[in-house]
Structure formats: C-alpha cells, structure tokens
Amino acid sequence: MATQTPQVMDAEEIRRALTRIAHEIIERNKGAEKLGIIGIRRKGVPLAKRLAKLLNEIEHVRVPVGILDIGLYRDDILTHQPTVGQTDIPFDVNDRTIILVDEVIYTGRTVRCALDALMDIGRPAAIQLAVLIDRGHRELPIRPDYVGKNIPTSRKELVDVQLKEIEGEDKVYIRKLDE
Amino acid sequence: MALKRKDILGLEEITREEIELILQTALSMKEILSRPIKKVPALRGRSIVTLFYEPSTRTRTSFEIAAKIMSADTSSIAPSTSSVVKGESLKDTILTLRAMRPDVFVIRHQASGAPHFVASLIPESVINAGDGMHEHPTQGLLDMMTILEKKGKLEGLTVAIVGDILHSRVARSNMWGLTKMGAKVRFVGPKTLIPPEANRLPVEVYTNIEEGLKDVDVINVLRIQLERMKKGLFPSLREYTHFFGITKKRLKLAKDDVIVLHPGPMNRGVEIMPDVADCEISMVTTQVTNGVAVRMALLYLLLGGTGDALAS
Q1: B42:A77 CB<8 A
Q2: Nearest residue of chain B to residue A86 (CA atoms)
Q3: Is the ipTM of this complex over 0.95?
Q4: pLDDT (tens digit, 9 = 90+) per residue, B272-304?
Q5: Is A84's Cβ below 8 Å from some Cβ in B?
Q6: Cα distance between residue B98 and residue B203, in whole Å
Q7: Which residues, 6+ apart, have CB-to-CB distance to B156 below 8 Å?
Q8: DSSP structure class, residue A20
C-alpha cells in the first residue's frame, strides 16, 4: 500500500524535460544520424517514441525506435516471476549509438538487465542512457547520461510516472509506502 | 499473473486464463528464436531431465533446445540404454534421478497417467510430453499458438481434427484447449477411429470427410499410427486415403483462408497429400518453431517465482 503525495512534475515540465534531453542528445552526438532509440518496456517505450519525434522535429532525421523487454534478464526471477513481453527492435543495432530510455532509474538493476539484453541482440557502437527521473539509491555503478529531473527520495517512497499514452495524462507523483 | 501450478499434465485441468498466459508468454519467447544469439539467462543454474519411454525426435529435441536457449542444463535419459532394461520400476527411476536434484522432469510414457503418477511422487515440476492415449499438452498449446498467430483469435473458429482420433493424445489436448478458448472442434474420421465416448465430449463427430471439412477454419490432420493399425481398424491404407486423405480438392470444402496443421511425423500420401503438406497454407514447420517457444514459456513459467516484480 502507498499514500499519494502532491505531484512533482506536470505535463508541461515533462515536455520541457524531454525537449532538453533531445537537444542534449543532438549536441553530444553531433546530430541524430546513426542513432537508434530503444525504450525499456513498459513506460520507457512511450518516452522513447516522444524523444524520436522531438529529434525529428529538431534535426529532421527519422530516428528508428525499438522496444526492449527485460523480463528474461532479471536477476530475481526465482523469487519474482516478471511478466514477459515482446522485444521488438526493427532495425540493426550493430554500429549504431543506442539511446536507452526508461522512466525512472533507481537501483540500476533494470538498466543492467537492459544492457545485457541489448548486447545479446547485437553490438552497438555505444549505449547512452536517458531517464525522465533519477531517484538515487543506486546498487550498481550505473549513471544516466541524460536526466529529466533528479528527485532525491527515501527508500520508503515510490516514484509514480504517469504517461498520457498509458494512464491518459502526464504527471509524476511521489508515493509514500505505508509502514 | 503467474502460473500457480507445479505441473503441466494436461489441458483438461488447466484454466482458460492459464492458457492465455502461456500463449502470450510463448509469443514473446518466439522473438528470441529469430535473434542471431539465441540465448537468454532466465533459467541459468536450473536443471531439466527429459525421460522418454517412447521414441521421439521432435518433442525431446524441442524441449532440449527450449531449455538450452533459456540457459538451463538438460539431461536426456533413454530408457532403452538405462537401468529400465534391467527391470527398474518407473518409481525407482524417478526417485534415483530426483536424488541428482533436477528442477523439472519432462516425461513421455506409453501408459496414460504415468506423468500424473510421477507428479504425485515428487515435489519437482513434471511436464507431460505425451502419455499413452491421454494427452500431449505441449502439442495442444503449440497448435493453439499457431492458429492464434495466423487467425488472430481462437474464439469462434471451427477446427476439424481429422484421422486416428481414437489413439491420439494430440486430439484430446487440442479438444480440451480449443474448446476452453471458445473454438468449436470436430472429430472427423472413420467410425472405428473415433473414441466410443465421443458423444460425451465437447465435439461434433463426422464420419464423412466432405461434411466434416465444410466451412472449417483449421484442419488438423493426425498421423495414421501405422504401428497401431494391425488390429484391422480399417481395411487398407489405400482405402483410408481414398476416404479421408487430405487432398487439394478437399481443401476447397473449407473456408478460403483455411490453414492445415499436422503434428508430425507425416505419412505423405496416406493422411495428407504431398502437395498439401508443402503448400503455403501448411503450418507444419511453423508448428515446430512454435513448439520451442511454447516449451520455453512453460519452463519459464514453472521455474520462475510467483510474486509480482518490483520496479527498479
């Protein structure tokens, strides 16, 4: 159970954060050629699609988008059976710079799984990580390259990212886990 | 949702929700088969024993490939070269193998109910890979997956199962699975090859092929089990082929977008004509691929935990 607290990002702030990330991606990679964007299922996927749209608007380059499911790479499947969804990457990841996208980075274990999964599919030239929220508490030496917003949290809290593609509206809440 | 059962023994006892979960997971697993590196770490450190008391190439290999893709270790026991030939009972064989600490037993046995007996003996998971004339649940699931992929649904379809239904565990698993998912099932074959209890089963029975194939969405052709035909259940193979063989001409009785399934191995020119077996609506090789995906899904769902994953 969790108690909802006031929201920390609204739709406009999410839009601005993604726009800034899109500009940072272009600046760092000197354009958007040879990029591929892969969203980590589930909420990384709509964010990946939005970033690809922004890159297209800014640079007039159509960046391919893929979906990565990490269920089979989790290190906790013996205690927690994750739902397995489909991975769908309709482009060659070899020699491409991949922007991996997720909504929240926390312990870093999901990203580690995603890196393993991606390396089994091909050999990208580089992988960069973009997240909407960095809530801290890393358990692995993983650091995102692009962050929409840093939100320091306690381990007794959950960051709830709601997206209009899934929940019907864009907002970010912090929820306190009940004692 | 998680699969909350220890064993997969038949589709008669499984729920519609469980079938949906298995098929959905299998559809996701299939993507892995198209990768250049067909390996995921999900079942690393887990151990699977396949114990086949009857000859089998495709089912045993399919289970082994599925397990290896998921990074599990497999051991294949052939009773003809094991202590079984020295008179060891099924119970003692299982208890001996169990002492080696495998996590899953995959069992094919000529006696109906043998996997159920094994499942009652041990706490490890048991998957029925075919028992006597009872069930072959993984074949039923892979057939459903193939139909689902091609038709986009199972609900409302009519599936004709044609041939030696009396001896077929595939027919029984298909019947239970498909009817649970809302499809209509027809048993089509000579009266001597229809089970006597068919009138108590959720199927329509046709002994005339032309009537049985009329307007069906799927034709599932069963192998004529030549080894069982010494009992004189029909006069000759030639006569069977004449009355029940699936020909291109007979395909026209079904719907325009009909697909043809066959669990293999095929007797070409007996129950299915070569031009049907090799035509574009024949799903035979797709079924084999889907078999690996279904078995990956089952091993994963049986060996994984039961809680909900925490977002991290």
Answers
A1: yes
A2: B28
A3: no
A4: 999 999 999 999 999 999 999 999 999 999 997
A5: yes
A6: 39
A7: B182, B183
A8: H
